[in-house]
Amino acid sequence: MIKAIVFDFDGLIVDTESAWFDCYAEVLGGHGIPFPTELFAACVGSHGGQIEAYIRQMAEGRTDISEVRKAAAQLHAEKMATVTLRDGVAEYIEAAQRLGLKVGLASSSDRAWVESFLRRFGLLDSFEVIKTKDDVANVKPDPELYLKAVQALGIEAHEALAFEDSANGAAAAKAAGLWCVIVPNPVTEGLAFGSVDGRLRSMTDRPLKDIIEELQAAPLP
């Protein structure tokens, strides 16, 4: 029986990811440097080591990488000032609470970043457990974040359903033994997600209750 929902944050609750891609693409494009969607998408939900290495290599002799980061961060901050929750997120959280489910969050970002948005949208108290990169040695696709989240929620992994937007996040959830339904954003929609338990274009597609009932009728993950 599913007893808890565990949400990813970036790209799922708030689409910070598509904004980051747009910002870096704009800044790098101004220096004649391409920024492939597939490179960025492959790092979504995890750390950005590959992106950093690519920018460092491509920017050499053209521009200062620290200036690229600064310009992209400024553009991103401007976009985040008016960002909204992804469609259906608030409704899914409310539905989970009505169904008597525990609600947790597992994010590869740092706690201050995550909580700043949750506080802004009045959602901070909606999560019984919040696990971020500050709590683990390894971020997604390592399963550690999800293992710590379900442990803190006091349930078994197969009693939790994760919602993810990235391949790295989905891999982490499945490796930890959770059910996983993906809700890709514009940057991640073309990724190969491997073995997951469902896919939505948006959380407005189907009621949470229907998804849970369908999964509970299926074999354990």
Strand order of the largest sheet: 3-2-1-4-5-6
Q: Provide the gyration radius in Å.
A: 18 Å
Low-confidence stretches: none
SS strand fraction: 5-15%
* Tally of contiguous helical segments: 9
- Average pLDDT rating: 92
Shape summary? elongated
Explain this structure to me?
The mean pLDDT is 92. The protein starts with a strand and ends in a 5-residue tail after the last helix. It has a 6-stranded parallel beta sheet with strand order 3-2-1-4-5-6, with helices on both faces. The chain is an alpha/beta fold and 221 residues long. It is 44% helix and 10% strand. The protein is built from 9 helices and 6 strands, in the order βαααααβαβαβαββα. This is HAD-IA family hydrolase.
Q: Key features?
A:
HAD-IA family hydrolase, hydrolase, 10% strand, 6-stranded parallel beta sheet, HAD-like_sf, 221 residues, 44% helix, HAD_2, elongated, alpha/beta
Provide a concise account of the structure shown.
This protein has 221 residues and is α/β, with parallel strands linked by helices. It has helices spanning 16-29, 37-43, 49-59, 65-80, 89-98, 111-120, 144-153, 167-176, 208-216, and strands at residues 4-7, 102-106, 129-131, 160-164, 179-182, 198-199.
Secondary structure elements and pairings:
Layout: E1 4-7, H1 16-29, H2 37-43, H3 49-59, H4 65-80, H5 89-98, E2 102-106, H6 111-120, E3 129-131, H7 144-153, E4 160-164, H8 167-176, E5 179-182, E6 198-199, H9 208-216
Parallel strand pairs: 1-2, 1-4, 2-3, 4-5, 5-6
Helix pairs in contact: 1-4
